[in-house]
């Protein structure tokens, strides 16, 4: 009994520890990369290109097909072995093996393999981009949770100060040193801060649920993240020129690589379409045989009367009859040969070359070439647009990161000023030199300054990471 209680206790502790697990940012990113549905779909797309390449390579192999048939005939039918018409019931079987091989098809098979390899590369680029996007989404969601938690900590800590002031003011009011209006002002401030606490707690909960949903974690209630104070890192990115970032982005970012691979695929499609103009030369080899259990008749010389004499004409001048000798035959029923013997005796072989020359097919080949040319030009425009979009995005990310840095510095300076002003107002309020309303306004400005520092800090961190991604740093190697 004691052992059972001990085991149950250990099991309960294990469940509690698992339920209280807090996720780090690295764990969240790794989990998302392994379980995200969009990433899994991109991985399936990559597997599909593997199948396409296997099929393209298989076109270089000869085709090999075998067939067999079994039938029973009743009534007037042709014997498949003797080709004589018979009114009977018999069983027949046939089999064949055919081999075909394309010797030349305008290099379409070769270029189809090249196209499949390019499709593989393009799918890999799409998968890499999807992983970068998901990692960035997770990082943004994670930082949003930290921001909301930091803001909740601010309003909670300031409410503790308000509660202390509320107790002190209540004592001073009861002693007649302060008017009752000051007490009401502090009480109103306390109520307002509790409302802000409720809003902040709700924001934390919603951001945790959003992050859990992004990670496909169903246990919303116990999901939580590690409350790490992430420092600002990667500011050296702002020391680079925007041209350096753009050049690195064009070499490393998947957007341009995807567009470039689309152009390469379109060029291969055009080559494949033009290959249909050339003749196709193929070789073939076939082997077939047959079997039947039908009996047949054969004509043999009559051993008793092998020859019969019959008139065959008359000589016109003399009227003399001309006679001739003819073999005298009799019909004899012949049983079918054995199955193995018939397979050997009734087989046949065919082989040769086949040349197919395209002459006119309703402009299908010409139309396919024209469409491929149009698609190639369209893909080139898309490549140029992708480069322009990437350049615009890098400029935007660079300016955003610079602006976020300046906003963070300004928020810190504002916090320093508001903290001094708040401390000054608190000291004056403690000695009765200012009223509760002015003190609460100073405190509110100080609270807002702390919240703004938190917001600008995590916004600055996130925008630096976006800039690092454009510079070519993989999402899994970003430092927080």
TrEMBL record:
A GO cellular-component term linked to this record: efflux pump complex
Signal sequence bounds: 1-19
Keywords in alphabetical order: Cell outer membrane, Membrane, Signal, Transmembrane, Transmembrane beta strand, Transport
Principal subcellular localization: membrane
UniProt-annotated location(s): Cell outer membrane
GO function terms (MF aspect): efflux transmembrane transporter activity; porin activity
Listed InterPro entries: OMP_efflux (IPR003423), TolC-like (IPR051906)
Membership in a protein family: Belongs to the outer membrane factor (OMF) (TC 1.B.17) family.
Annotated protein name in UniProt: Transporter
Taxonomic path: Bacteria, Pseudomonadati, Bacteroidota, Flavobacteriia, Flavobacteriales
